[in-house]
Specification:
The protein is mostly helical and 84 residues long. 85% of the residues lie in helices and 0% in strands. It is built from three helices and no strands. The protein is flat.
């Protein structure tokens, strides 16, 4: 467990050093953490009405379709760049 904590501390330290270099505020990680907390709370709340495995499956399908669309558009863009 100590090794995992050490690795995570190094990753967070690296991100803290890199975020200002790319123009993001130092509070970016805190904002991401609070957004993830809100998403988890929403999933827990929705779990009372819809089984959580069904809800997560719907989210996974949405993400898979979104990623497939993104990869398709990226591939079309690269082909257009190659053709000129």
């Amino acid at each position: 467990m100590d090794l995992i904590n050490w690795i995570l501390e190094r990753i967070v330290g690296l991100l803290d050093a890199l975020l200002p270099a790319i123009g993001l505020s130092p509070e970016f990680l805190a904002n991401v953490d609070s957004a993830m907390t809100i998403i988890i709370d929403l999933l827990n709340t929705a779990g009372y009405f819809i089984p959580l495995d069904v809800l997560l499956m719907c989210f996974m399908v949405m993400i898979a379709v979104d990623n497939a669309t993104l990869l398709l558009r990226l591939g079309q863009w690269v082909i257009k760049l190659i053709r000129g």
